[in-house]
Amino acid sequence: MEIIENIEEWRQRFADWKRQRGATNEIDKAYPFVENARAPFTPVRRSLPMLNLALISSAGAYINGTDPFDTSAPDGDYTFREIPTEIAPSDLLFSARGYDPAFVQQDVNVQIPLARLLEFEANRVIGQLNSAFWSFCGFIPDAAQLLDVTLPKLIDRLKHYEVQAALLIPASRLCHQSVALAARAIEQAGIPTMMLSVEREVIAQVHPPRAGFYRGQFGSVVGQVNWPEHQRRVLDEALRWIESASQPGMNKLGVELESQVEAARGER
Predict the structure, then answer these.
(1) Of the given ranges (8-22, 166-180, 201-215), which has the lowest mean pLDDT?
(2) Is the model's pLDDT at 265 over the cut of 60?
(3) Is beta strand 165-169 parallel, antiparallel or unpaired with respect to 52-57?
(4) Are 249 and 239 in contact (CB under 8 A)?
């Protein structure tokens, strides 16, 4: 199955858009988002409490003191960073493009939920969080280059660590396309995936194998800032769907309804 269906037709649409946009690097309403009709699907082979789970973020996280992502590159930065999961949050910086970094600067767990996932590991919700996670800057207009340059190398690293499932978290609207394509490629390589989403329209077009959707905010996709319980709800419901899903699809998470009930009660 193609990661981008009718890719040559998409390349032409993208080239036409580049000519029309001129010198600006912004994504306008004319940007040709990828459109796929089907999605690859790899059934999970182990229960969630036995999985080695990988975390992949498109928020542009990098280690303080190392080179940031190039947020000025017109068609995106195709590199990624492999970062130890035991890193202190204060040692992470973000090359934010396409989203407001204010949320993640207050609480890294809204985009890089290491604390929440390590809690899940301690409580046996997941078998283990892989010892490294991967970060890239998901503002990549040239989706074909993402497929050709970035994703083969990323998949090689996942296989090196013998990852058994991957959780993918976008940050911006365009990140939703980049992450959905990454999920398709990873799934095609035989690794089950789950993508979080707060942008239903894009994922409905790109068709990642599994996506958990709720009405959240860009730059705070894992849940609300400094509200661990909200973040746990988002992650718990999404991750459990890796195990139970029998076909590709998009699942609306119940966390939004739970939060509305709390608000009606006067609770946080």
Answers:
(1) 8-22
(2) no
(3) parallel
(4) no
Radius of gyration of the chain (CA): 17
Would you state the structure tokens that stand for residue 112, as one six-digit string?
Answer: 């890089």
- CA dist 174 and 114 (Å) reads 23
| Range 6-9, long-range pairs (CB < 8 A, 24+ positions) | 7/144
pLDDT at position 264 is: 43
Q: For residue 141, give both structure tokens.
A: 């207009």
The DSSP bridge pattern shows strands 80-84 and 52-57 to be: unpaired
Q: E strands, the chain, where? A: 52-57, 61-63, 80-84, 92-94, 128-129, 132-136, 165-169, 193-197, 210-213, 249-252
Domains annotated on the chain, with CATH:
45-264 (3.40.50.2300)
CB 109 within 8 Å of CB 235: no
The structure tokens listed for 7 are 């890719």
SS3 157: helix
Query: pTM (2 decimals)?
Result: 0.94
